[in-house]
Design brief:
The protein is an alpha/beta fold. The chain has helices at 15-24, 52-61, 65-74, 83-86, 193-205, and strands spanning 4-8, 28-32, 43-48, 78-82, 89-92, 104-110, 121-129, 144-150, 152-155, 163-168, 172-179, 182-185.
Length: 207
């Protein structure tokens, strides 16, 4: 009997590749797109692709917003990927007036484009963390490369706590956050080959 994982589908997201990655690690995955009983699952994953406001709207239209809010409030094991991390914040410059879950007081900001930093950031970049301090990065070398695809970032100086890892792209920003058993990663572990699978394995079996 594998770990029971709910992959939350709000109408847009990298659902298939995330689900297949989790299944390859022995998880029993169910894609949920309507309100569900959290007692049926051990872990919860929200893969985010698209715009901040569309993500919030999709969750609310499908009746999933209150379910995710309950997961976060109760401290159940949650992994938000890309936008699934950003909606843990209070808001985003991408969608003025739209509120996130507010687990972290930050506002997601848009990268400033420059010759050295094109927007969106697409491709491999390094992730730095306090080696061995958190089970999510267990067995993963500090400074490892993961795959990114995003135009907005979570500023480190707007986090009162919870910075787990950081990345450089024109500036230093939060690439992973944590509060209790609530995790968010800005990169895409399902696209990050061996180390991405290692991180997902840690979420399944060590968090």
């Amino acid at each position: 009997m594998g770990v029971r994982v709910a992959v939350i589908d709000y109408g847009s997201g990298n659902i298939r590749s995330v689900s297949k990655a989790l299944e390859s690690l022995g998880a029993r995955v169910e894609v949920v797109s309507s309100p569900f009983d959290t007692e049926d699952f051990d872990k919860f994953v929200l893969p985010g692709v698209g715009a901040f406001g569309d993500t919030v709207q999709g969750l609310k239209e499908r009746g999933l917003w209150d379910v995710v809010a309950s997961i976060l409030k109760r401290g159940l094991p949650y992994l938000g990927i890309c936008l699934g991390m950003q909606i843990l914040c209070r808001s985003s410059e991408e969608s003025e007036g739209v509120e996130g879950f507010g687990i972290f007081p930050a506002t997601a900001r848009r990268f400033r484009s420059s010759p050295d930093c094109k927007v969106p950031q697409m491709g491999w970049n390094q992730v730095f963390f306090e080696d061995g301090k958190d089970p999510l990065f267990s067995g993963i070398p500090n400074g490892s490369y993961f795959y990114f695809c995003h135009s907005y970032y979570v500023p480190i100086d707007e986090l009162d706590e919870g910075l787990l890892a950081w990345t450089e792209y024109g500036l230093r920003y939060a690439s992973a956050v944590v509060k209790g058993r609530t995790y968010g990663v800005q990169f895409h572990p399902e696209k990050s080959q061996r180390l991405g699978l290692e991180l997902l394995r840690n979420f399944l079996y060590k968090v």
